[in-house]
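Student: I would love a firmer grasp of how sequence relates to backbone shape in proteins. Thank you; the sequence and its tokens follow:
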Amino acid sequence: MQATWNKGARKAHLRRFLLIFLVSCLALGAISGGVISALQRNEKNQKLYLLESKANDIKDRLDRLTARVHAMAFALMAEKGNPESFDVLAPLVLQGWDENAGDIVRNVALAPEGVVQYVYPLEGNEPLIGYDLWEAAAPNPLTVETLQQGRVHITPPIPLVQGGLGLNISLPVTMPGEEASWGIVAIVVDPDKLIASFGLQELTDHQAEYALAYQDMDGSFVTLVESAPVEQPLSLSFTTENIQWEMCITGTSPLGIYAAAGLIAGIIAVSLLIAYTLNEQFHKKELHQLFRRLANTDSVTGCASRHYVYEALVDKSNGKWRDEKVQYGLAILDVDKFKQVNDTYGHEVGDEILQQIARMAMEKMNQKGDCVIRFGGDEFVLLFAGRTQDEMRAEMEQLLQDVRKITLEERPDIRATISIGGVHPQQMKEQPPIYKNMLRLADARLYEAKESGRDCIRM
């Protein structure tokens, strides 16, 4: 009897143990799963930020290239369509004013009435002479429509008549007061060097595989470059001129250490469950605010980032200022020979110069609505709210003088200067004073300042 009872007790004890063990495993497993999910969500938010940041870099690079055809068009209009200065202008456009661009542009061309007659450099590009750009565009109605509307058109990588592949960036030119198009200005971009300039390899430093694709004429997406097949992708679509892009990166990495951390967290999660539940929403909100602040603030200078423009100042859908009551003057500031400073003294010295210039600009531009934006590299965009032309010019002149006084304790021999191209809304006679139009005109003025010897203002 005693033996039978002991046997029954042991069975009951075992059943109770197994039941408690099962319930505990389920509870701890659920908590561990929640922890792992939270880690994955945080990882996803970080990679979404990386994705948007890199998309902004790509748009920035393509904007800088399209600015070259706009600069060439402005110069041609200033000469009333006379192409005689092409031999002087073309090398400058080919080299560009972006010292970090390298030799991305392969050639520059002018096509009066759409037929190429001027090419730089000519050597190796002889087949372009006499090439009819309108005839080449005819098979694609969307291309023809874009050019007829007077807008920039960018092709994907296509075979070139002179051999090899290239992206063609074209812009029709119409002389002031005339209805018929004068012709087309164009540059050809080396696709491999352009892709290399995007810096997509940086994504692999964050354990993310990537792929970049563009939308073809039939609506399908064609992969331009990828590090490896992208699994469980996060994607972002964006547009530059007429091209729709899609960039993907891996959404999550293999669990690995996260799984181990989740199991450990699950063991202690019973006592921390209430605190975890209450803090999760706060943590999500805090992460969202952090990533938004990181996206809107330049980490080196502390001024606004390029992303902030469309986040707070400009309506993406129509390019108009969000606050239409404010009349913004816009200027582009570029540090003269900044690449030479970086190459000679190192990036730490270069960053210190950028920080001092940004601090000076932000201290002087302190009226409500003013904004200093690091546009990329050594370029800043300055937004002057509610200034007259004279007030805006006076503030830029003062900033120009202050920058000349910059001294570095460890390198007292270094002197910094800047060039500024500015535009006031009252100067926008032919185009509405929206952000994109003012940016292009200010960029052309900056180009004039650099061509005039730097360390000056053109407005």
In short: Residues 393 and 459 are 8 Å apart (CA to CA).
